[in-house]
Amino acid sequence: MYPKNQGWNRFWYATIFSLKGLLYCFRNEAAMREYTLIFILSVPAACYLGDSPVERILLIGSGALVIIIEQLNSAIEATLDRISTEHHDLTGAAKDMGSAAVFLAVLLFLYTWGEFIYRAWATTP
Fold first, then answer.
1. Which of 11, 36, 46, 122 is the most exposed place for a label (fewest CB within 10 A)?
2. Is there a contact between 108 and 70 (Cβ–Cβ < 8 Å)?
3. Active-site annotation holds for 29
4. Domains of the chain by residue range
5. 102-112: per-residue pLDDT in tens?
6. CATH code reported for the domain at 29-122
7. Tens-place pLDDT, residues 49-65
């Protein structure tokens, strides 16, 4: 058995593996590329729309949540595809639930941004 990495060494390797996971998902999942583009474009808009740090955190955080859940959904799908590519009801259900999680995160993103955009336009004289 190999000794486990500890301290900064563990942090370094965890960062490298995390970046590899982000890059893999970005390269292989069209939805991840789309959500990432929307997220990158929304960050400057969040800085403009948010009047306080909490508001900016809500706007940026709702976009980050979509990306996080898309990562988890992609991991679920990759694991299930690794096990078997033939159709099974439980495999389909697991993939559908992962997709539903992404969908709910997107709805939260849209609602959060809708509230802020409405407030910005409704209060403009």
1. 122
2. no
3. no
4. 29-122
5. 999 999 999 99
6. 1.10.287.3610
7. 999 999 999 999 999 99
